[in-house]
Every structure is written in C-alpha cells, then in structure tokens.
C-alpha cells in the first residue's frame, strides 16, 4: 500500500489548483496523507474518497443520483476502502451507482479536489459521526442514451439534470458550491 500512497501523493502534488480554496485543500490533504488509516472509514475524522463528475457530450447536463441519506440529488462517488487508486474507485462508483458501462475517461488525472463536510447521520441503523471527505474528482463523458440502472442500496434515482437546474434539485448547499466549481472548470 505504501507505493499506492506514494503514487496518490504524486498525483495530488501534480494537480494544479484553480483557486485559493483548492490550494488550501490540496495542502491540507497532503499534510494528512501519512496517516496509515487515511484510506479507511475507521479513520473517523477524515478519509480519502473518490467522486466522478459525469457530463453529457455537449456538457449541458450532469448525471446524478438521488442519495437516500441526504435526500438530495448528488454526484456519484464513494469511499476508497483501502484502495489508493482514486481514479479506479471513481470508475467503480460510476458503474455501480448508475449502471453505466460505456463512458469516456475525459480526464484521467484529477479534475478537482475538495474537502467536503459530512454531517452526522444514521446509515444502516448505525450512527456515523460528522467527518471530512478528502475528495478527488474525475471527469467522465457519457452518451445520454446509455441505459441507467438505479442502485437501490443507497439511491432511489439516477437521471440527467440540466446544469442550469442544479440549484433547484440539490438540497446540500455545501455541495452546490463544489458542483458550480466543476461546471465553471469546463
């Protein structure tokens, strides 16, 4: 796993932040990478996660899932659970959460990084304390005609949402800031 963490560190070091907040997030994430549990949920204060930002071919819509815990439309992604290859985790989450198998890896390097707050909640009958997701995001392009499949384990919907309508369907205001950042990067 050490070589995987070293590669992850190199990937983050190579990432060029687009604003002051990303620069601060990058420094913070790099400062925490020596934690041996950073890739695991057992590190209760913070851990690495991987997300995918999935756009249609003309970049007017984003593919989102309806997240049951947060009761909001959300990007796809998840915990690394020990895997230091964040790009691989993002692809796995895209396939698991949407059923999509055909996609273009539009940007195999880190597209964005952010520290996202997670508020305390109950998952599968157990409390999850408030913590931080040290998140790396990857960009994918998907044809809107691809068949979508709802993964009912954590979501109750998957659909294309016009980027101009995100403010009306996303209930997590902290996440809207991140989503707008991603749209603006395109």
Automatic annotation (TrEMBL):
Residue intervals of the Nudix hydrolase domain: 45-186
CDD domains linked to this entry: NUDIX_Hydrolase
Pfam families tied to this protein: NUDIX
SUPFAM superfamilies: Nudix
PROSITE patterns: NUDIX
Family: Belongs to the Nudix hydrolase family.
Protein name, as recorded: 8-oxo-dGTP pyrophosphatase MutT (NUDIX family)
Organism placement in taxonomy: Bacteria, Bacillati, Bacillota, Erysipelotrichia, Erysipelotrichales
């Amino acid at each position: 796993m050490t070589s995987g963490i070293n590669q992850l560190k190199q990937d983050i070091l190579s990432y060029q932040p687009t604003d002051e907040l990303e620069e601060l997030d990058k420094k913070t994430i790099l400062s925490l990478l020596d934690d041996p549990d950073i890739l695991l949920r057992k590190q209760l204060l913070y851990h690495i996660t991987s997300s995918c930002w999935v756009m249609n071919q003309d970049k007017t819509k984003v593919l989102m899932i309806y997240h049951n815990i947060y009761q909001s439309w959300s990007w796809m992604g998840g915990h690394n659970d020990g895997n230091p290859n964040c790009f691989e985790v993002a692809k796995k989450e895209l396939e698991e959460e949407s059923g999509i198998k055909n996609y273009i890896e539009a940007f195999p390097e880190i597209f964005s990084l952010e520290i996202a707050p997670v508020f305390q909640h109950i998952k599968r009958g157990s409390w999850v304390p408030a913590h931080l997701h040290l998140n790396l995001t990857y960009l994918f392009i998907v044809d809107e005609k691809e068949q979508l499949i709802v993964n009912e384990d954590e979501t109750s919907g998957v659909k294309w949402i016009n980027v101009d309508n995100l403010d009306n369907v996303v209930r997590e205001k902290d996440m809207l800031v991140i989503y707008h950042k991603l749209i603006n990067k395109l």
